[in-house]
Amino acid sequence: MNMDTAVRRSQIYKFLADAFLYPSENWLEDLPLLADIARDLNFGVWDLGFGIWELPALQSEHRRVFGLAGSLCYETEYGLPHEFRQSQELADIAGFYRAFGFNVGGKVRERPDHLAVELEFMCLLALKEAYAAQNRIVEHAEVSADAQRKFIEDHLGRWIDLFAQSVALNATDGPYLALARFAADFVATDARHLGAHIEPRRLADVKHTPVLADFSCGDCPVAQTPEQGVVT
User: Fold this and answer.
1) What crossing angle do the helices spanning 157-170 and 55-66 adopt, rounded to 10°?
2) Terminal CA-to-CA distance of the chain, rounded, Å?
3) Rounded distance, CA 160 to CA 196, Å?
4) pTM more than 0.70
5) All domains of the chain, ordered by start, with CATH?
6) Which of 16, 73, 84, 137 makes a 20 to 30 Å CA pair with 167?
7) For the purposes of burial, counting CB atoms within 10 Å of the CB of 139, is it exposed (0-12), middle (13-18) or buried (19 or more)?
8) Model confidence over 72-89: pLDDT tens digits?
């Protein structure tokens, strides 16, 4: 058990989770801190030269890259063979969240399969691992580490590289292309650290999940749960 490694991993996941949401603050200003954390983690060398953008320009770029005609930020939009699988996958993701007390809701309401939500869940699991390691609770640390491995294998790791490929089609340059590439590379590296196995896929081989004409989030098991607090 390595508490310092778990804490630094959680910090990177938190940074990524916040950065993929519509920016109310300029996350580019935190890049020097991210570089220090990545260096301390010693997982590899990444290009963190995302450029200099003022907040209004960053907000405009987010709308362009992730707007109506942009890249989809939802796991279940990437290649499920049938529309009913979407509800099943959402229920499986929600099951992970419930098992570890991760609440979705509050001021920022997103589907449980949104990239930012999945990244923040990984942040929470890494923090739980760090807490258990600090207090020498071996069993809890192992449970948290195993949950991270399974969640990457079953969910986050299965589609984040496809997401980065999609962003590359919608943004030939700019901070969100660099962010997507960094996120995909970091998750792949973290998967190896956790012993998770990810099958690589190409975006060209993926057809977006079909959706019934009357499909709505109202049928989703998550939508039927009481409103809870802000994602923490």
Assistant:
1) 110
2) 24
3) 14
4) yes
5) 3-219 (1.10.3480.10)
6) 84
7) exposed
8) 899 998 877 666 678 899
